[in-house]
């Protein structure tokens, strides 16, 4: 397994008590597969992603990235783990306005000390993989919303992560562009052999993923095939 969450509990202060965001969550995501986590707002999706990214430490339980337990690591070691093992696709691309599509990716490689010429080759290869080979020199204002999200995905893969965490990638896209982005994520997951977690409230594209789990009140459940038919490919839109 490349990503394993074991018995994760996470609470937040809530007045004189504590609010449980994740309640004994266990999740295994093998390399080369995409697991979608679905659920309504406030169900714990964002908390699960933050813990998996090692951005938030759980109250109890263990996050294991590619065989390395995150618990007990220093801040510096955790930062190094994120740089080299984890790619994050944020809900909003947050691209730097002054940089071209290729430069957005090259900045990521600079952080890990990759040589400029090597970084340029890698960036162009990834932009080609996401269908933007002809847009490498364009800046964010020259790209559509779907194209900016594709740059966002390519940027997350720039340092060859073993774990890819994706937060609501279709929230600002129409149905067709959203389907294309989810299809792209699953294809790249197989090609790059990442363990991918796709957090979403949109069930209309889930036939493309390898596994689906639902989260409610901080607990993981099997999706309800009646209430959540798209997770099983059982209903047409």
TrEMBL record:
Sorted alphabetically, which InterPro entries does this protein's record hold?
AAA+_ATPase, ABC_transporter-like_ATP-bd, ABC_transporter-like_CS, ABC_transpr_LolD-like, MacB-like_ATP-bd, P-loop_NTPase
Q: Name one Pfam family in it.
A: ABC_tran
Q: Which residues form the ABC transporter domain?
A: 3-237
The protein depicted here goes by the name ABC transporter ATP-binding protein
Keywords noted in UniProt: ATP-binding, Nucleotide-binding, Transport
Organism in which the protein naturally occurs: Lentzea rhizosphaerae
Q: Which PANTHER family match?
A: ABC TRANSPORTER RELATED, IMPORT ATP-BINDING PROTEIN
Single annotated GO MF? ATP binding
What CDD domains is this protein classified in?
ABC_MJ0796_LolCDE_FtsE
